[in-house]
């Protein structure tokens, strides 16, 4: 495996700003100031702080993944995607379970918002990393293995013209084999050794996820709930730099 520089390792980490308001998010951003990682804004912060906060982060030079996981009828997702693309975010997502027509509508919405040269990366959520094999089969009612479902959704997303998927790091090798190495994988469910699992079930350490070939790893609580978030992020970056 080719060794990563510190900047390359940092650029693979998407810090999940799961906070109730802009002030709390700003506090974390202050603590990790100068580390060139990606920032993920999800539902909690977006619904509280709104599109203006996202635009503000963009104007300050952050790379933003807007994680709103749209899942609705195609026409509504087309409109939502168009509004999100107009915000200038670097990446956003939809649920693959919405189907191919819905994902194609998301891509149409993106093209309505502007030039294809600087459009956001559009990815699809496959199976949430909190979902276990048992829950997928017995509660949600999808038969077969989680990996088969993830691959089915990844293929559908690719056919619809999307750029990649959200999945567990343990599914990255199979996704790349099915959809090609340039099809992007964005993987939450990252837990440094010894960290609390919280509600995640399909997890890997940062080093293991890197070895699987993940493009980006989404990490929230192991950083944001740490006594020293900057130190927690630095030690994840160090794990990626030194991983063989
Ligand atoms: O399948 C998914 C899709 C999205 N997420 C999001 O990633 C972060 C993970 O946070 P942790 O605190 O590291 O568990 C969070 O914002 C989720 O909404 C996911 O976990 N799994």
UniProtKB/TrEMBL annotation:
The active site is at 67 (for ompdecase activity), 69 (proton donor), 69 (for ompdecase activity), 72 (for ompdecase activity). It is an enzyme of class 4 (lyase). Substrate binds at residues 18, 40, 67-76, 129, 191, 200, 220-221. It comes from the Bacteria. One of its GO terms (cellular component) is cytosol. GO terms for biological process: 'de novo' pyrimidine nucleobase biosynthetic process; 'de novo' UMP biosynthetic process. GO terms for molecular function: orotidine-5'-phosphate decarboxylase activity. Its EC number is 4.1.1.23. PROSITE patterns: OMPDECASE (PS00156). Pathway: Pyrimidine metabolism; UMP biosynthesis via de novo pathway; UMP from orotate: step 2/2. It catalyses: orotidine 5'-phosphate + H(+) = UMP + CO2. CDD domains: OMP_decarboxylase_like. Belongs to the OMP decarboxylase family. Type 1 subfamily. NCBIfam families: PRK00230.1, pyrF. Catalyzes the decarboxylation of orotidine 5'-monophosphate (OMP) to uridine 5'-monophosphate (UMP). This is Orotidine 5'-phosphate decarboxylase. The lineage of its organism: Bacteria, Bacillati, Bacillota, Bacilli, Bacillales. The gene is pyrF.
């Amino acid at each position: 495996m080719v060794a990563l520089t510190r900047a390359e390792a940092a650029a693979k980490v998407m810090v999940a700003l799961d906070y109730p308001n802009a002030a709390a998010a700003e506090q974390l951003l202050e603590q990790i100031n100068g580390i060139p990682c990606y920032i993920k804004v999800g539902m909690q912060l977006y619904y509280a702080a709104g599109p203006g906060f996202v635009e503000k982060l963009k104007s300050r030079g952050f790379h933003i993944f807007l994680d709103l996981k749209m899942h609705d009828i195609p026409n509504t997702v087309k409109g939502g995607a168009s509004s999100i693309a107009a915000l200038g975010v670097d990446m956003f997502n939809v649920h693959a379970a919405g189907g191919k027509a819905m994902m194609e509508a998301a891509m149409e919405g993106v093209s309505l918002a502007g030039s294809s040269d600087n459009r956001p990366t559009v990815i699809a959520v496959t199976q949430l990393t909190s979902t276990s094999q048992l829950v997928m089969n017995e509660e949600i009612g999808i038969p077969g293995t989680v990996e088969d479902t993830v691959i089915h959704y990844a293929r559908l997303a690719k056919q619809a013209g999307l750029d990649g998927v959200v999945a567990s790091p343990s599914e990255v090798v199979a996704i790349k084999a099915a959809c090609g190495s340039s099809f992007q994988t964005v993987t939450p469910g990252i837990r440094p050794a010894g960290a609390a699992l919280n509600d995640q079930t399909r997890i890997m350490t940062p080093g293991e996820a890197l070895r699987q070939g993940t493009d980006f790893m989404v990490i929230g609580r192991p950083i944001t709930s740490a006594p020293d978030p900057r130190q927690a992020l630095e030690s994840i970056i160090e794990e990626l730099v030194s991983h063989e």
